[in-house]
Amino acid sequence: MDALVTRSPRLAAFWPFTPTAIDDVATWSELVTGGAFERLWLGQSVALETASTVAYAAGTGRRVPIGIAVNVIPMHHPLTVVQSMRAMAAATGHDVRVCFSAGDPVAQERFTGARYSSPMTAAREFLTVVRGLLDGERVRHDGTYFPLDAALPARPHAGRVLIGLGVLRPGMTRLAGELADTATSWLTPPDYVRDVLVPALDEGAAVASRPRPELVVPVHCVLAGPGRDPVALAEVAIGKHLRTPSYRKLLAAAGEDDVLARGHRAALDSGLVTYGTADDIAERVLAVAAAGADEVPLVVHHPHRSWPAARDEWLEVGSAVAARLSSARRDRPTVATT
Fold first, then answer.
1. Considering the domain 10-328 in this protein, what is its CATH number?
2. pLDDT per residue as tens digits for the range 74-111
3. For the chain, what are the domain ranges?
4. Beta-sheet pairing, 219-223 with 148-150
5. How many CB atoms lie within 10 A of CB 114?
């Protein structure tokens, strides 16, 4: 039986790489223009400036909704990041969602010369300043991390720019509830989404007397097929994350002790990386939707080296999951969003 879906989540595609060639986003945009996915999510690129690749895609006629998760705050200045987000909205003609993270201490030190004594304060200051600039305000902010006295011209007519935070733990999630339009997680099991992230998001929104932001919860998956090695694909998918302190703390808090002990092999057993048929993947998406997600990007990991084969697999999985979501929805009102 399908899980009870009390909201109507959008289905998106999360490309598990970052742009390294100017036409990467144009290529992957086919997932949105040709199938059930409503948005293309990207990670931050360190090879090419992401807005340039998005603008190139738009110039080829592939103007699709874009999300970025996450931009590492120490790599960005509020003024230039607002210009970049506006450029993407103008190029695509769609809303653009960009989520930020304070990053780990190593990244902070590499890009700023020092570690943030309070990542929460840094994230609060960054989002506050960016929000003011997006709203056309003269921003006079005498902050610890992002002092600024500046304004930008009124933005061009385009899609909205929605800003967010990457969230793993309750503190940053409450801050997202207070300040952000969107919060996005990574490697968060449905129970943790329901019991930890959603309540923290609600708490933050209540503090600010505002509707809670939308919650974006990606689902990592591998479609079963002849000759496939799910263990190897799971290692490629999340092996690096399972060796990262911030994600290990998250998984400990989420009760994923077996994953911490056995790594990606246990992640397959727990569903953290869902392996199976398109119907099995749909079951995981339904569980995440029932836990409170407003948007569920699929992260489809596969061994294909050719784009046509990869595209067809993504579209096959997306179509099957969208059909199951449609059949499982209940006529309940969704939470208001900003």
1. 3.20.20.30
2. 999 999 999 999 999 999 999 999 999 999 999 999 99
3. 10-328
4. unpaired
5. 11
